[in-house]
Design a protein that fits this description.
By secondary structure, the protein is an all-alpha fold. The chain contains seven helices and no strands. Helix 3 packs antiparallel against helix 4 (91-111) and helix 5 packs antiparallel against helix 6 (145-170).
C-alpha cells in the first residue's frame, strides 16, 4: 500500500470522529463544533497531500483512484447531511449533490469496461475544494444564515456545472 493511499485511508478513518463531534455540537458554536472543524480541516488537507504525493512519487494506483474520490464524497456529504439535519443546508441542495455524485460514478462505471478512464476534471476538483472550504466556513459560523445561503449556492452551482461538464465531455461513453 502506497503512502498516498495510507493518507487517503486516514481521511476515511477520521470520518467517525468528525461525525461524533458534529453530532455532539448540536449545530451550535461550541467546543465540539470547533473540534469538528479541526478534524474536517485536517481531513480536507489530506486530500491535497495524498494527491501531491501520488503524483510526485508516482504512487498513483487503481485503489487510490477509487478511494480518494470516495473519501472526498463521504467527508463533504457527511457535513452536508449534518447541516441538513439542523436546517442549515436544504434537502433539495443535498439531493442535487447526491444526484451528481451518483450520475458521475455511473458514467465512470459505463466508461470503465470500454477501456475509458474518466479522470477528475478541473471543475470537479474546484467543486470539491470549494465545498470543503465552504463547509469549514459554515462550521466556523454555524448560526449565520447568510453565510449558509452563500455556501449552499456555491456548492449547488459548482456541483451542477461540474456534473454537466463531465457529461458533455464524456457523453459518447453512454452510446458507444
Amino acid at each position: 500500500m502506497t503512502t498516498a493511499t495510507k493518507i487517503t485511508l486516514l481521511r476515511v478513518l477520521m470520518l467517525p470522529a468528525y461525525m461524533v463531534f458534529m453530532y455532539l455540537s448540536g449545530g451550535q458554536s461550541n467546543l465540539w463544533m470547533w473540534v469538528s472543524l479541526g478534524i474536517f480541516i485536517l481531513a480536507s488537507l489530506t486530500d491535497f497531500v495524498d494527491g501531491y504525493i501520488a503524483r510526485k512519487y508516482n504512487q498513483v494506483s487503481d485503489f487510490g483512484k477509487f478511494l480518494d474520490p470516495l473519501a472526498d464524497k463521504l467527508l463533504t456529504i457527511a457535513a452536508m447531511a449534518m447541516f441538513c439535519q439542523w436546517g442549515s443546508f436544504p434537502a433539495w441542495a443535498l439531493m442535487i449533490v447526491l444526484t451528481r455524485e451518483f450520475a458521475v460514478s455511473g458514467l465512470r462505471m459505463v466508461a470503465g469496461p470500454k477501456g475509458k478512464v474518466i479522470a477528475a476534471g478541473k471543475s470537479g476538483k474546484f467543486k470539491t475544494a470549494s465545498s470543503m472550504v465552504g463547509l469549514c466556513v459554515m462550521m466556523a459560523f454555524p448560526a449565520n444564515s447568510l453565510i449558509a445561503g452563500i455556501v449552499v449556492g456555491l456548492i449547488v452551482v459548482t456541483t451542477v456545472y461540474s456534473g454537466i461538464e463531465y457529461f458533455v465531455q464524456n457523453w459518447k461513453c453512454l452510446w458507444d
